[in-house]
Design a protein that fits this description.
Layout: H1 15-43, E1 132-133, H2 136-142, H3 148-153, E2 157-165, E3 171-178, H4 184-193, E4 197-198, E5 200-202, E6 205-207, E7 209-217
Antiparallel strand pairs: 1-4, 2-3, 2-7, 5-6
Length: 220
């Protein structure tokens, strides 16, 4: 069963006509609108406002005047404690020199300094002829007696002894500079005290000389 439309209500028949009429009306409206704006623009008077002209004046640079410095302050007077006035002394400028007169005696010369005698030192460390051990070091070692306490303890070593050999070749001022202990120091001092030297000489004269010797203790 097919449905038929009423020819009066069918819009397809009049669609193209309606579109054309609408476009014509739109063009007419636009043309009228442009003509109204142009006419109104010709009749409108535009008032222009005169702008104020600003003139730039050149500013001249002024010269700075420097003020002179203030004057210095006057010095403050200082009170002088002594206000005495010195009297002028009369100088005798007419004094004459008597050439023929006696010459004043000169002061005596200073006394001659007595020459100090050269004090010899108590002992020397190095002399022209050093002391010599009589019999040599081997004979000195042969006189060493090993202490029983050191033998039982098994103590060995070297004892360094310092002493002074006098003008007769005897030893004095004996001291131990390196100790071992266990009675070995005392034995080293005994051996050195009983040792004789040929005295040392300085400028052909026997003098005291300080020396040092090691005494060796070794168990056999």
């Amino acid at each position: 069963m097919s449905i038929r439309k009423n020819p009066k209500v069918d819009l397809r028949r009049t669609y193209s006509l309606v579109v054309q009429v609408g476009m014509v009306l739109s063009l007419l409206i636009l043309i009228l609108a442009f003509r109204v704006n142009l006419d109104a623009g010709e009749a409108m008077d535009i008032e222009t406002i005169d702008q104020e002209v600003v003139q730039m004046e050149e500013i001249l640079q002024t010269k700075q005047i420097q003020k002179p410095p203030p004057p210095p302050r006057p010095p403050v007077p200082i009170e002088v404690p002594n206000d005495e006035i010195l009297e002028d002394e009369d100088l005798d400028l007419d004094a004459s020199l008597d050439i023929d007169g006696p010459i004043a005696s000169l002061p005596p010369p200073p006394p001659e300094e007595e020459e100090e005698e050269e004090v010899e030192p108590e002992f020397f460390l190095i002399v022209e002829q050093m002391p010599e051990l009589i019999g040599g070091l081997a004979k000195l070692q042969s006189r060493v007696k090993y202490p029983e306490m050191a033998r039982k303890a098994g103590v060995e070593g070297k004892v360094f002894v310092q002493f002074v050999v006098d003008e007769q070749g005897n030893t004095t001022n004996i001291t131990v500079t390196r100790s071992v202990g266990a009675g070995l120091d005392q034995e080293a001092i005994r051996v050195i005290r009983e040792t004789k030297f040929t005295p040392g000489k300085q400028r052909g004269k026997a003098v005291k000389v300080r020396m040092s010797l090691p005494i060796t203790f070794k168990l056999r």
